[in-house]
Amino acid sequence: MKDILLIFLLGHILGDFIFQTDMIAKEKQKSLRGVSIHSLEYLVVFCLTSLVVYSFKILCAALIISDKCIIIH
Fold first, then answer.
1. What is the model's pLDDT at position 72?
2. Among positive and negative, which fits the CA dihedral 40, 41, 46, 48?
3. CB 49 within 8 A of CB 7
4. Residue 58 CA to chain centroid, in angstroms?
5. CA dist 38 → 6, 48, 65 (Å)
6. For residues 49 and 14, what is the distance between their CA atoms, to the nearest angstrom?
7. Coil, strand, or helix at residue 31?
8. Tens-of-pLDDT digits for all 73 residues of the chain?
9. Rg of the chain taking only CA atoms, in angstroms
10. Is residue 24 a contact partner of residue 41, using CB atoms and an 8 Å limit?
11. d(CA 40, CA 59)
């Protein structure tokens, strides 16, 4: 549950405040094209954020498992 909250929070901050340009913000108020561009941007940001969050968790798990295997041997 914390992972999903982290992904949504990071995705929202990145999608709305970091990667959204003034042009996109103005365009999405005027046309469907602007909304489409913003939606595509959000999709990419959320996919990358999910990948980073879950890859980090997988990497941590792999390091913990490999560390325990080294200690056992």
1. 53
2. positive
3. yes
4. 16
5. 21, 15, 40
6. 9
7. coil
8. 777 888 888 888 988 888 888 999 899 899 999 999 999 998 898 888 888 888 877 878 877 777 666 555 4
9. 18
10. yes
11. 28
Structure tokens at 32: 């469907």
Query: Both tokens of residue 12?
Result: 């929202």
* Structure token digits, residue 49: 């954020």
CA dihedral 65, 5, 40, 32 (to 10 degrees): 170
Structure tokens at 37: 């561009």
pLDDT given for residue 61 in this prediction: 80
Scanning the structure block, which residue is given the tokens 């913003």? 38
Question: What are the structure tokens assigned to 51, written together?
Answer: 């990948």
**3 state DSSP class of 17:** helix
